[in-house]
Amino acid sequence: MKSLIIFVFLLILPAEAFRPTLLLGNLIERTCRQTPFYDLCVWSLKTNPESRNADVKKLARIMVDSVLKNKATDTLDLIDELLQDGFALDPALHKALSSCAERYSVIIGGDVPEIIEALETGDYKFAERGTNDAAMEANSCEVEFPGKSPLTHMNKVVHDVSVVAASIVKIILHSQW
Amino acid sequence: MADTNPFLPKSSSDGSHLTGSQATRRRPVKEQLTIFFGLLAVGLFAALLIGKNGSYNAHVHENKHGSLATSTTKKPETLRPVSRGPAAGVSEKSNRLSAKVDGNLLAYPWNNSMLSWQRTAFHFQPEKNWMNDPNGPLFYKGWYHFFYQYNPNAAVWGDIVWGHAVSKDMIHWLHLPLAMVADQWYDVNGVWTGSATILPDGKVVMLYTGSTVEAVQVQNLAYPADPNDPLLINWVKYPGNPVLVPPPGIDKMDFRDPTTAWLTSEGKWRITIGSKINKTGIALIYDTTDFINYERLDGALHAVPGTGMWECVDFFPVSKTEENGLETSVNGPGVKHVVKASLDDDRHDYYAIGTYHEKNGTWIPDQPEIDVGIGIRYDYGIFYAAKTFYDENKNRRVLWGWIGESDSEAADVQKGWASLQSIPRTILFDNKTGTHLLQWPVEEIESLRLKSNEFNQVTLQAGTVVPLDVGSATQLDIIAEFVIDKEALGKATGSNETFSCGSSGGATERGALGPFGLLVLADESLSEQTPVYFYIAKGYDGNLKTFFCNDESRSSAASDVNKQIYGSFVPVLEGENLSLRMLVDHSIIESFAQGGRTVITSRVYPTKAIYGAAKVFLFNNATEASVTASLKIWQMNSAFIRPYPNNEKF
């Protein structure tokens, strides 16, 4: 009898080692498949330790509070650097950079807090609004440059992360549960 | 190497495991240990494999700074009040970052002149910051009271508390101190939407949703601290709050926005609260005698599958015959009841007309195919979280609706405010169609009318634009009637193409019998313009269908504003001319077709058609029909909405 119990326990043990990883992969993958940027979505979430055992709401929160906020902050840092360099000599460029700085300040100080509060209190339409706005601010920044934009890559990252976040919020908003 | 198949059938060591003799027990233990470590090794090996497959290359995250962002947060920069760079490009709906398009789109920076023009002259808005849902409107001791969702700290949604204002005429508002703030555990995460009930003895009772410290949505009771204060400045929250918590089967975040209460035949008070079960929107029903203890009725007032969460549910009677409003408890043979819900899923307000069955607290729509959430909307533009109240002062039912912004939040932050309320509208049952309600701006708005210009029987040939000289054109009240050439109506060939405002090409898409109407907030060269118009579609069977649209696609040179085309089919009955009323007030346009049968509210943010450069035109873009228009256009005064004068006692 003891041997039977031990044997059953041994059968379960490796299954336990497998199961969390499989399910974790599944929810993130399932969620990210419903966004337009699967690879970005999966990588952003899987490399964040908080995504372990997270539900969809938590995944949305991670995408916004960690990924979007960090990427937007990095972009704002870059803009500040560029404004201080000689880059800013061209008045049109300076204008565009200043406008972008304002937009990114709003993403970080306006959109992100709005989205987080909406996710936490369950008034999801404001989370959708904030994520859509963040994507639009990044896009608007990009098109403000008369010539070549020095922020193309960062704007695309922030835009795409925002769109991913908006898609995840949409999943929550239209959820069946 | 370890055993690679942990799920080997028992047969290899079966006999030894199952026999119970002492002598054979020692061998199985050793075997079991081998199996144990074997499985462990396999498990670890497999976990390692999976872990490696799960990591992605860092190519997605090339970063000029060389490293992935850390999780430490940087304090957000304070906003710099700088002018914006040139703006041109794609709509916010796009999923791809598009390259700069349309070299013809000149770059316009948002400057302070453009942004400050956007503030309205006679629509309710606080002095600054964010507003959303209308709350607890009521008439008390000679004053109209209006409360609203407000963020005292920013021009985006968050930190929600109750703002408050009063007026003698629902037009000239005076701001008062905040009525309620988030100072209790049961509303610390948001003092959300609620409604007022006036008891037969004149007492005021307020029910509102609080988001608790754990973000649970609960219903709370509040009442005026001093019933003798006509301004109702101070409010008391019932010490035993919350009075209602989410019932079993209802998610703790799907339970909000209690309605005004109405009396049942048993003398109890009844309220409804919106929620959802799976994807079915639902209006829960509760009875109470004291507003403190509630009994939930089985089932619901009504539910509609597929509509999602019902926010800001409203329930009220309308008279089938009389041109006045009905107090919320009224019932009887000449009465129909309206159920309205704000759908969280699509941010639109829907209503339906039906019959209320008082005994079991249910309501059945007259026409299930246009049930709540799948049928008629209050407004085909921006209009949400609407709420009515019975105005006992003038015996009418009045509707408030939240009008959000459709520009970028960065612009809202820069200009320091976001959102408006609609001009309050009277609500009447449209007994000509039997399916619609009629909405009309309250008559008190007419007190703002200044000088007027009349244009009689202006004939617009197909394909013409006629300027109307009215002077300043940013604050207007317009009443217009259009008659389309009868012969052209008859001669036009029908088609089976279905038309919809939203998917059409806007005012430039020419049909035989439309579009025709007005261009407002248009500059001289028409580089910026907002057409509001009728479009008549003729079917194969010769039937005419009229549509009413508001086209924002060329409303502004800026790229970071909404450029949609709003609108809907509008019922036009035999013998009716096409009629239109418009209130233009800087960045808001409210348009009413056929006496308010179909309404469109839109927000526009022109960069050039502002101040003295804004003009009004008549236009007829039909290909085969001429149209005759008669209009009266008034300049509108400001309502001078401001704080309640300091020298008055509080």
From TrEMBL, chain A:
One of the record's GO molecular function terms: enzyme inhibitor activity
A Pfam family per the record: PMEI
Signal peptide: 1-17
InterPro entries given in the database record: C/VIF1 (IPR034087), Invertase/methylesterase_inhib (IPR035513), PCW_Enzyme_Inhibitor (IPR052421), Pectinesterase_inhib_dom (IPR006501)
Keywords from the named record: Disulfide bond, Signal
Pectinesterase inhibitor domain segment(s): 23-168
SMART domains: PMEI (SM00856)
Family the entry assigns: Belongs to the PMEI family.
The protein's name in its UniProt record: Cell wall / vacuolar inhibitor of fructosidase 1-like
Gene: LOC110419296
TrEMBL record, chain B:
Stretches for region Disordered: 1-25, 64-94
Cell compartments where the protein resides: Vacuole lumen
A GO MF term: beta-fructofuranosidase activity
Annotated TM spans: 33-51
One Pfam short name: Glyco_hydro_32C
Taxonomy, superkingdom: Eukaryota
GO cellular component, one term: vacuolar lumen
EC number(s) stated in the UniProt entry for this protein: 3.2.1.26
Residue stretches making up the Glycosyl hydrolase family 32 C-terminal domain: 444-635
Keywords on record: Glycoprotein, Glycosidase, Hydrolase, Membrane, Transmembrane, Transmembrane helix, Vacuole, Zymogen
Composition skew (Polar residues), residue ranges: 10-23
SUPFAM superfamilies: Arabinanase/levansucrase/invertase, Concanavalin A-like lectins/glucanases
InterPro entries hit by this protein: Beta-fructofuranosidase_N (IPR021792), ConA-like_dom_sf (IPR013320), Fructan_Metab_Enzymes (IPR050551), Glyco_hydro_32 (IPR001362), Glyco_hydro_32_AS (IPR018053), Glyco_hydro_32_C (IPR013189), Glyco_hydro_32_N (IPR013148), Glyco_hydro_beta-prop_sf (IPR023296)
Chief location category: other
One of the GO biological process terms: carbohydrate metabolic process
Pathway the protein acts in: Glycan biosynthesis; sucrose metabolism
PANTHER family xref list: BETA-FRUCTOFURANOSIDASE, INSOLUBLE ISOENZYME CWINV1-RELATED (PTHR31953)
Protein name per the record: beta-fructofuranosidase
Organism, as annotated: Herrania umbratica
Gene name of the encoded protein: LOC110410188
